[in-house]
Amino acid sequence: MDMANGLDLGREALITALKIALPVLGTGLVVGLLISMFQTLTQLQDQTLSLVPKIVAMVVATVVFLPWLATRLIDYTQGLFGNF
User: Fold this and answer.
1) What is the pLDDT of residues 1-31, one digit of tens each?
2) Per-residue pLDDT reduced to its tens digit, 29-78
3) How far apart are the C-alpha atoms of 3 and 12, rounded to whole Å?
4) What is the pTM of this model?
5) DSSP code of 83?
């Protein structure tokens, strides 16, 4: 394996990791922003109020997007083994 192939494999790994993390982290971001706006409007500053809904939303997003995430991982793995 030369340097160009190694760089391509690293680049593809980072892009795949970003594609896999984006739906779950995006859900956490949106829910966090909504909870922060709610806390600002009501002036409730309880930490569990912001943490628990984000965790629940991220778990639900993981379950919902799991088939898509698994497909992306399988495609990456097949492409990785196909290059050897």
Assistant:
1) 688 888 988 899 999 999 999 999 999 999 9
2) 999 999 999 988 988 887 778 889 999 999 999 999 999 999 999 999 99
3) 14
4) 0.79
5) T
Both structure tokens of 56: 């629940």
9 is written with which tokens? Answer: 């494999």
Which residue type is seen at 26? G
In sequence order, which residues have a C-beta less than 8 Å from that of residue 10 and are 6 or more positions away? none
Q: Where are the alpha helices (DSSP H) in the chain?
A: 3-42, 47-82
Token pair belonging to 40: 């600002």
> Cα separation of 70 and 78, whole Å?
12
Q: Is 12 within 8 Å of 78 (Cβ atoms)?
A: no
CB 20 within 8 A of CB 69: yes
